[in-house]
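Budget justification note: compute hours in this period were largely spent on complex prediction jobs such as the one shown. Inputs:
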Amino acid sequence: MEFLNYFDNVFTIYHIALLVGGTFAGIILGALPGLSPTMSVALLIPFTFHMKPESGLILLGAMYTATVAGGAISAILVNVPGAPANIATALDGHKMAQDGKAKNALHYCFISSFVGGIFGVFILIFFTPPLAALSLKFMSTEMFWVAILGITIIATLDSKSVIKGLLSGLFGLMLATIGEHPTNAVERFVFTDHLESGVHIVVGLIGLFAMPQVWNLLENFYAKKNRVFSATGDATLTQSFKLVFSKLKALSIGSIIGSVIGIIPGAGGQIAGIVAYDQSKKVSTNRENYGKGEPEAIIAAESANNSMVGPSLIPLLTLSIPGSPTAAVLLGGLLIHGIFPGHDIFTKNPEVIWTFIDSLIIAQILMLIIGLFLSRHSKWIMKVPDNYMAVGILLLAVFGTYSIQNNYSDVLIMFILGTLMYFGSKAGFSPVPVVLGLILGTMTEEKFLLGNLIGNAKGSSFQHFTSGTINIVLISLCIASIVYGVYSSRKSKKIKA
Amino acid sequence: MNSQIKLSTVIVTLFGAFLVYSSFILGDSENYLFPRLISATIAILTIMLWFEKGEADKSTNFKDLLPGIAIASAFILLLKILGFYLASMIVFFTLVMYYTKPMESKDFWRVLLIKLGVAFVFTFALYGLFTLLLKVHTPEGLF
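Corresponding output:
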């Protein structure tokens, strides 16, 4: 129950203000169609540079929690999910909006998100320390394979093509090698002065997530817009609470499935929401109403995508493998604040980590209160024109990038990288594996070089990397994840055909 | 294999070849060991990409996209000359004026004045937030 000792740190005026501000901004950003939680957290990281680590992480955590829940607003009112995690919510939520019950749907969404979110944070609290202790057994070769496993899983889950996903992850690793060699300080791939200091993690994060969004908004500016529904309905808050808690089966299915999927590296809220929706439909007595505006469907999907948030941090804090794309960005935030995930995270930085985890509980409560308040005015949030949104993101991206090191070269790298990624995404390449490769690149190379050195001293580097139970398990998991990726991609192609 | 997949595959192949060349030819074996491992794997995957039956690339609406890229590129280049805030106000105004929906443009001068006002207020808000409140450095130029 160590987590109870650090609540005092959360309840300072400064931290509460950060939580309220982060939640408020997160719900609004999440509600804007197309602004994903991943991009929102990436844009926010530079603003946390001047803060203490715990304050910065509190703000990022609040933003992560709120954007996932806020994405349901546009899913319900416009039928455009604010984030991939809200795809399942749109199926029934928008039907309710069409029937004049958008307010009811928004109530169910925020209440079930709150329940799922709290459940997920408690899973994080109780499962992280034992897993962190387990990571003590991970030496250089094991850590190398853990990094490769993380990239492999995200590459195969986040991309339609396994080959393109793996290539994206490898491009990310290559990006991380630009600049100084991690041990010899020899410059590599420095073809221009602008590349002298390499590609900073946050520069990559902002470029890869924010710039493609700017181009996407401008390219589709003249495309037809969907109708925005008002948040009308007959539900009172008490009735909504009663209804959500009367659907315990959907609530439990969503929370448990979301938590389990959150722990799986790279899976994320999109899968959590869809799987929970599907499983809840299978056991529901109202299954014929799914897709026609069934509250149970919204409850299952939203409790799942928010319960995923806490557990997605478990592999992140213990093994450096993010449980979701947004958690991958959060990993960048942790490293920038000097917090290195691993077995000693709770002994080296207990105050920072427990304060951060405790703040996630408060963030869930604030998400419920602010979410219910903002949902009444959500139609106005939807009306922000795309051209204003695009230029706003562009300016924030440029400012955020420059402020990292006061370096104009970073702005150029961010702009070029983001533009290349936009065209790459048209060809099926995903930014998430690239980012993970960039974030884990230096650590992966360091562990590889150390393992290689020890292996050579022992007689065979290859044998050193491929022997030992943990190494064999990790290599098997890498292969299994690639095989699964190939299988699921072939299966989805067959379904489409 | 359709022509669009071929184009993206060709670009990836050229890029992969460049990575292999710069890791194996330009770099020494000691410092480029890890990049060599990665670029060799990239090369193998690139060959496999040629045999993959993938979906067609999404088409790009260059007509609407390119003006945006041009305006944003000009902004990035002018950043150092004009400074962050002046360049921001200009790019804000230019982008929202260029990307105008047909229904907006009935009263041109009214739209222009409103957008100019929003650009000014937005830039001033950025100045208040970044420079006055957060005391963060922005690219300096004229302003």
